[in-house]
Fold this protein.
Amino acid sequence: MDLMKALPSADLRSWLNQAAIHGVPTNFNFCEHGTDHFFDWHRAYLFYFEKICQELTKDRKFGLPYWNWNQNPDIHPAFLDPASSLYLARSRNSMTGSWSITTAALDPILADPNFFTFRMQLEGTPHNNVHGYIGGTLGGYASARDPLFWMHHCMIDYCWAKWNIELGNNNTNDPAWVNHQNSHFVDANGQVATATAGITTLMPLISYQYESSVIGSSPAVEWKKAKHDYEKLEKKIRKGANVRFDIKQRIRIADRAAVSIGKPVSMETRVSVSDFTRILSLDPAKERVFVNIDFAQLPASSDFAVRVFIGLPSANRTTPTDDPHFAGSFAFFGGSPAKASLAAGGEHKGQDMFLVNITDTLQRLKRNQELKEGSPLSVQLVPVPFAGKFEREDTQLLLERIDIIITPVIINPPE
């Protein structure tokens, strides 16, 4: 970090220039959020950043560490020493108290074998929550100026690697995704570099390997394999699968609306007997049910999470996350950037569509006889401030729509 800061401002490898690739108002702003390239863009970003570190330190074995906030929610002491280059003032020094990084939050996400729904949930829940909960510089689009950014995103990258390599799930082999190319990066020599999404899937095998660790109920595993097994694994990852994000049924809960973050909102719809029966009797191994929340515009502040409940109109910010009606939560990242700022730089993309898996919640309420055919199906959104109070009580959530959707777990898996 000190070596990067010592580079001249014209050097694209400098600390601020590297941070600007991810996002700094009136500057580059090329990062991908809320798109199917969230994983591969950030993996390539980490890859080239690590190569720069290796070149500047003359240490070819240098590797970026990841912060396993599930097992170790406290920030490493090295980032808390005011005399250290790694130090920045932050709102919190621990993720303790945030549901988003708990085993209860992460297990269903890692258990989702569909690449697209896995990405949306991992981004919307642990990724966004860590940015906002820790706060400070990490909570905004200039987050890459905080050294902790790189540890956090290495953890997100490891979650993808664990899901894909350790747990054996498939990335999509859609040519439009595989061949998608980003040219926003800088190599070890300071030259503009490119990376396709497809090549990033192999990086944890051919460039670096993570030390495996526990995430939720998923144990650490041995990555070192015999050559034959390694070749089979590489072939499997290269091949991917014909996985798509397919919606088999959509039930509208609410259309465009503006709601205040200061109070919970409850929305309901009448569901036909046949639809209700299908929702409650589907096979979770083949189909999943999600609440799909689509925002017309991101809120100006991101100092809160939104908890989602099913069938509990009285839900509020004090309702515990172990309540049987609780389904999950999501958070925003960075707020709504000014369009003028983006026009001056790149094309920063923000996540405005969120998925919360309600399959288990519906099954639980069915067992408890709290869901009955013919009764309304309701969804509650409960904004919960990270600091106990909102930075801006007048913040509005501009909803485009809320749907309940049914999606196949896997579409056309490989032979």
User: Anything to note?
Assistant: The CA atoms of residues 250 and 405 lie 5 Å apart. The domain at 249-408 is CATH 2.60.120 (Jelly Rolls). The beta strands are 181-186, 192-196, 249-260, 265-269, 287-297, 304-310, 326-331, 353-357, 377-385, 396-408. The mean pLDDT is 91.
